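Hi there,

I know you've been waiting on this one. I reran it after we fixed the sequence typo, so this is the corrected version. Both the input and the resulting structure follow.
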Amino acid sequence: MKKPWRTAIVGNLQALNVLLPAFQAVPGFEVTALCGRNEEAVRGAAANAGVRKVHQAWEPLAEDPDIEVVALALPPLLQSQAAVKLAAAGKHLFCEKPLAADLTGAQAIAEAVTGHQRVAAVNFGFRMIEAFRDFQAIGQSGILGAPQFGVVEWLLATRRNPALTWNWKSDARLGGGALNMMTSHVLDYLGWIFGEMLAVRLQTAALVPARPETGSGRLKPVQADDSNSLLLTLSPHLPVNVIVSTALSVARGHRLRVWFENGLLELANSPDDDFHDGFKLTFYPAKNTGASLDQEVRRRAAFSHMEACFPGRIAASRRVVEEFALALAGAASRMPTLAEALRVQKWMERARLSQA
């Protein structure tokens, strides 16, 4: 068997808090380097995890023959720049979502990975949750009949505080905003469950229009949405309303509801749950469908949390990392692919153009 893939992880919060424990939990990888601008945090994490190498920038990784895999948790604009050069240097890539700040950057990553015959995964973790897999399996089985109408609500208060300082999350050009950071997840799992998008209409808002700059405290205009609403038509002619916000006064969690000919299938968690945890799948049968249908749907649905030993976000990422290991070994994998990540990027581009 091949020795574990020697891996570097690039970034600060997401990299150290989620990707580092996720990769360390998978036997196929050995984390040998950490990179991040917050030198104190990165060195502390490296010491605690027994990681030998520490860098403040990703560029040295391209020239390091000891590194075979690079996991990136950078702002989307920077991720696209780094991924292209790292793939050209022969590194396999684990990327955060979305791939890039725009379609051009995402296509550049795909071309680099394909051209240099590398393997790349994208961390769309919701499809790794049992309840979402059950939803997909039930919806695609035909047992509920044809889908008729869908509603997605992901309503948070994480960025409601106007005292949060201005950073890349406030700038859509860098890849910030709810559309890039949150709605990209929704578009990924909707495409995974139902297929292609036929039409889209987007509306956005910035409920917190300005944030203080770090150091000076001067207010700087927010140049990215913290709330958005999409009207989608998915194949074959399924209307879906998507509402996402990170800056509401009252959070309500994440809920996906789809009405089928034979009833309503609902997947929901609470605002107190981790983003990837606490989901419960519930079926509401239509009148006169019979108890047998209700029992069959419930038999197929496993109402379970992610692993107790990991918070949901880490557990979901770990499962993507496991699928990444299979792909690197040339085995069949269910990981989110570059083609699927490009589809999400194309859908977001179409959504933005629909608003113009």
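Quick highlight: The mean pLDDT is 92.

Best,
R. S.
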